[in-house]
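Action item from last week, closing it out:
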Amino acid sequence: MSKLQGSGTVPDVGSDVIKYEVVDLPSNQSNIIRITLKSVDKITYWKHLTVMAQIGWISSLKISELETKDSKHEDSFDYPSWDLIDHLRLEFWKGGFLGAGAYVTQWSINARDNLGSHIIFTWEKE
């Protein structure tokens, strides 16, 4: 996927609804990508976003984890350009049966094309 723009809905999430919005960062932050995971106030169950550096087609390296739970409804991560890999794989998870994590979907973004962007994911329905 190339540069994300505007807003939309993350595909393939079953009955959940995860929206995204992309806003430009200030010009003095054009060398990072900021990724934010939010959940609306009525969602208190655990929501999780794993950020992976995708190395080739098969291998990946976990570089950050964002989560919301209970009264915590926002978590953010800044990815600097000096650590830039071509693609970031974003894995969405939620609380599952007996507290085990349940995989929801994954999304890949082009890291270089999205420098200077703040990508906000909001979990609106579970």
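Closing note: Residues 53 and 61 are 5 Å apart (CA to CA).
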